[in-house]
Specification:
Blueprint: H1 3-11, H2 25-45, E1 50-55, H3 59-75, E2 78-79, E3 87-92, H4 97-116, E4 121-126, H5 134-141, E5 147-149, H6 157-166, E6 171-173, E7 194-198, E8 200-201, H7 212-216, E9 220-221, H8 224-236, E10 241-245, H9 262-269, E11 277-281, H10 290-298, E12 305-307, H11 315-320, H12 327-340, E13 345-352, H13 359-372, E14 376-381, H14 399-422, E15 428-436, E16 443-448, E17 453-457, E18 466-474, E19 478-483, H15 484-496
Parallel strand pairs: 1-2, 1-3, 3-4, 4-5, 5-6, 7-10, 10-11, 12-13, 13-14, 17-19
Antiparallel strand pairs: 8-9, 15-16, 15-18, 16-17, 18-19
Helix pairs in contact: 2-6, 9-10, 13-14
Bound molecules: S-adenosyl-L-homocysteine (SAH), iron/sulfur cluster and FE3-S4 cluster (F3S).
The site of S-adenosyl-L-homocysteine (SAH) has 17 residues, from strand 13.
Length: 500
């Protein structure tokens, strides 16, 4: 929805009437109410109100944060990166225990801030809130929290925010599940030139270690028409790169009334004018079709990168993980992908220390890493998640053994990734410039189609542009480079001055 359409819609809402039942209209009604509350409080304080959204989880969590930001901004808050804000919201993750611990640690600090600024409101949402036990713990030990909601009712944020202004005490609204998808709510993108797009929600795979199906609920796909409409709108807004998001994009569309495959969706997305790059996350190896490989090979717009979580290279462990592929099937899939798309970068996720894992199983994982040669791999220590089948397995691996295995895997990943990425040295490739380099303001950071980063001299005016960059120096996982045109000019300048 454009800003103008939003204002027209809000102007047409009559707050003297009861809130409408249908969505998303109901949320726009409450958004209008929130505006009045925010305005009143800002007048009282004599300054604009600020809000800070903190993301703890994956790309889907980050996309949800953009939806929260959209509502906050439309309600009249000025978005800020500082937690010393009038409204602080933590969008939590619970995939591993350390994600939970980070939230609790930072909540302690928020309590201190809230004592200094009693107007401050604190909200918690996201995956961790869906876990049994969390709410009780927060009620007991973090009583200063004003609002808690979960993953299934995030579309109700405007309504819940309004309730924070109108009710006293902690507001808790957690749904156990939903089959609803509410379209057309405001979103505030973090980047002007690229955006994530949810194509599906939830997960049906129940890998035996994983909490996600419990906290995100069953798989639901968005209607392809809604997805394509959203991407066309993004393209009109100046977005050049989109990332299609789902826990398992390869099973997209199976549960729609008129089933559509992910390959079919993707081939429609690449037709959208203005979109120059398409990425997607995450692919489950068991569902990756030959059709998808064909579509990927057929379009230059589809980035030369595939994240294909392996989890383990041992067929025995894969079975216990309920991953539904074997070591050999994974390797054969990689061969099919590499044959069709030779320049593709493959990245992966690996878990070390799953119950029953022996050093020999770790050897199998290392064997796959060596044979595939991943461009990057995220290696995780197995974390026991209450309620998952793996948590009650008897053969949990002792910490020391897990450490040794983890270090071996990490070392292999680093060696192979280095070799893999280094092969690009000296080539000129297109990079989408994303930001000014954090450490050196004379450099900008760009992302190659294959997801590798390159830092090169440039200024902020380049942000959002796709430019050719020569990859000059490999620095371990990233490159230092130079804009290709500049290199030509430099060469010309050198010739004129008689230098070699
Ligand atoms: N849907 C995606 C993964 C989402 S979670 C997929 O299936 O690929 C991201 C990664 O976290 C997983 O790939 C896995 O490697 C890791 N992970 C999930 N649960 C974990 C656990 N209990 N302990 C350690 N790592 C875990
Ligand atoms: Fe978790 Fe497996 Fe679903 Fe990924 S596919 S979210 S690892 S259950
Ligand atoms: Fe974490 Fe939820 Fe994503 S548990 S990894 S934020 S789906």
């Amino acid at each position: 929805m454009t800003a103008e359409n939003l204002e027209t819609l809000l102007a047409s809402i009559d707050l003297s009437q009861p809130a409408p039942q249908e969505e998303p209209l109901r949320q726009y009604y409450f958004l209008k109410k929130c505006r009045l509350h925010v305005q009143k409080e800002a007048e009282k304080l004599g300054r604009p109100l600020t809000a800070c959204v903190t993301t703890f989880g994956c790309q889907m969590n980050a996309r949800d944060s953009e939806k929260l930001s959209g509502i906050l901004e439309q309600a009249g808050y000025v978005l800020s990166d500082s937690e010393e804000a009038d409204f602080d919201i933590y969008n939590t993750c619970t995939v591993r225990d350390n994600a939970d611990q980070r939230v609790y640690g930072r909540l302690g600090r928020l309590n201190g801030l809230k004592k200094k600024n009693p107007h401050m409101k604190v909200a918690l949402c996201g995956c961790m809130m869906q876990e049994p036990g969390t709410i009780e713990k927060i009620r007991k030990s973090y009583r200063f929290v004003d609002l808690i909601f979960g993953t299934h009712n995030i579309f109700k944020f405007a309504e819940l925010l309004n309730a924070v202004f109108e009710q006293d005490g902690m507001i808790v609204d957690i749904w156990q599940g939903t089959d609803r998808i509410v379209e057309d709510l405001p979103v505030e993108r973090k980047y002007a030139f690229k955006s994530g797009i949810n194509i599906m929600f939830g997960c049906n795979n129940f890998c035996s270690y994983c909490i996600v199906p419990y906290v995100r609920g069953r798989e639901r796909s968005r209607d392809p028409k809604d997805i394509l409409r959203e991407i066309k709108q993004l393209a009109a807004d100046g977005v050049v790169e989109v990332m299609l998001l789902g826990q398992n994009v390869n099973s997209y569309g199976k549960n729609l009334e008129q089933p559509v495959t992910f390959a079919e969706l993707l081939s429609e997305v690449v037709k959208i004018e203005g979109i120059r790059r398409v990425r997607f996350m995450t692919s489950h190896p068991k569902d990756l079709s030959d059709d998808l490989i064909r579509v990927m090979a057929s379009s230059d717009k589809i980035c030369r990168h595939l994240h294909l979580p392996l989890q383990s290279g041992s067929t025995r462990i894969l079975r216990a993980m309920n991953r539904r592929y074997t070591k050999e099937q994974y390797l054969a899939l990689v061969d099919r992908i590499r044959n069709a798309i030779p320049d593709i970068a493959l990245t992966t996720d690996i878990i070390v220390g799953f119950p029953g894992e022996t050093p020999e199983d770790v050897d199998e994982t290392i064997d796959v890493i060596r044979r595939v040669g991943f461009d990057n791999a995220f290696t995780f220590i197995y974390s026991k998640r209450t309620g998952t089948p793996a948590a009650s397995m008897q053969n949990q691996v002792p910490e020391e053994l897990v450490r040794t295995g983890f270090d071996r895997v990490l070392k292999t990943v680093q060696e192979t990734a280095r070799q893999q990425v280094k092969r690009l040295s000296g080539r000129t490739m297109e990079a989408l410039v994303e930001e000014v380099n954090e450490h050196d303001a004379s450099l900008v950071t760009g992302r190659l189609s294959n997801n590798t980063l390159v830092h090169f001299p440039g200024d902020p005016s380049l942000i959002g542009q796709i430019v050719p960059v020569k990859l000059e120096e490999y620095k371990g996982f990233y490159f230092l480079g130079r804009r290709a045109e500049e290199t030509k000019q430099d060469a010309a300048a050198h010739r004129q001055s008689g230098e070699p």
